Description:
The structure is a single chain. By secondary structure, the protein is an alpha/beta fold. The protein folds into two domains: 8-205 and 334-385, Rossmann fold (3-Layer(aba) Sandwich), CATH 3.40.50.10540; 233-308, formyl-coa transferase, domain 3 (2-Layer Sandwich). The protein has helices spanning 17-27, 56-61, 75-88, 100-103, 108-114, 139-145, 165-188, 198-205, 207-212, 251-261, 276-281, 283-290, 312-316, 319-323, 350-353, 366-372, 377-385; strands at 8-12, 31-36, 65-69, 91-94, 119-124, 192-197, 233-237, 243-247, 305-308, 327-330, 337-340. It is elongated.
Amino acid sequence: MRPLDGVTVVSLEHAIAAPFATRQLADLGARVIKIERPGAGDFARGYDERVRGMASHFVWTNRSKESLTLDVKHPKAQAILKRLIVEKADVVVQNLAPGAAARLGLAYETLAGTKPSIIVCDISGYGKDGPYRDKKAYDLLIQSEAGFLSVTGTDADPVKAGCSIADIAAGMYAYSNILATLLHRQQTGRGAHLDISMLESLVEWMSYPLYYAFAGAAPPPRSGASHATIYPYGPFPAADGKTVMLGLQNEREWAVFCEKVLQQPELAADPRYTSNSKRSAARDELRAQLSAAEVVQRLDDAQIANARVNDMHDVWDHPQLRARKRWRDVESPAGSIPALLPPGSSHVADEASARMDPVPALGEHTDAILAELGCSDPEIAELRAAHAV
């Protein structure tokens, strides 16, 4: 048995934020019914064809779901959607364009009037109110608005994150808030409205640089792969021609590093380097002392934190992930594909801890769900002829 067995989620979702949240609910056993547009589906299905003809984003965020195609602008499809929510749903998740859910009659106030136990989670770029409420938002735009680009990159160029960090942040806060609200509903019997914004989610993650710039102080500079305010903490050349990431966090580690790695114990007492702030200010001067290839070969012996700078092929073959047996096979319309077991899964009841069901084909479950709602074969045929499903 999984924690969310018996919980049904209906999601009007696309792209990353909402699908990532609901996939994690599905991992825990929830039944997730994904509403998709007939003929096209979630537009993330078309992002690329890198996974045996399927899109990498879609494969990642949509396993273990049921795909129901509905043209939510069609009156008959709208009626089916509302019946599905009233009869089946514990949770409704949506990240449609601003105002679209309300126009469809899916605002929390409307649904709660019929079903007080319903939990409605709205995910948007900027939230339900305020001057930005009607602005469309995509991941890069939120990275810009949240100040992420101002602290990421080099002096010459700001750089966006290599993955959808604003979407992921919003998806994680939607996921955790839904779990908390399900627990609250057990105590009170009542649902709630959750208003999750990508901007607020990413700004929460930006709290360290925000506080660093508190009260008009200078913000942390863009410093590439190095830490902006801790040194040594960043990339250094290794003997094999690759790059090793080195991280020192405190004065004890600095002293050990000077003695056992640099083999220059006198540096630990050098007044130029006796605190992190001083080392960070003198990083260009100090870097010359750290750049020799043989230096980083001593890191493990000195128990100084370090890591390889892996590419994606290295991660597929990462020895730690394989040793901990984190990979599973997941079925899809294009056959079996590997998928990473969700973080935190139980090692005691491994197979029961996370659901790893197939990635659905577009509309794969439409007929079965419509029949479950009491639609007859002629009614389903009529809806199909009208392109409503």
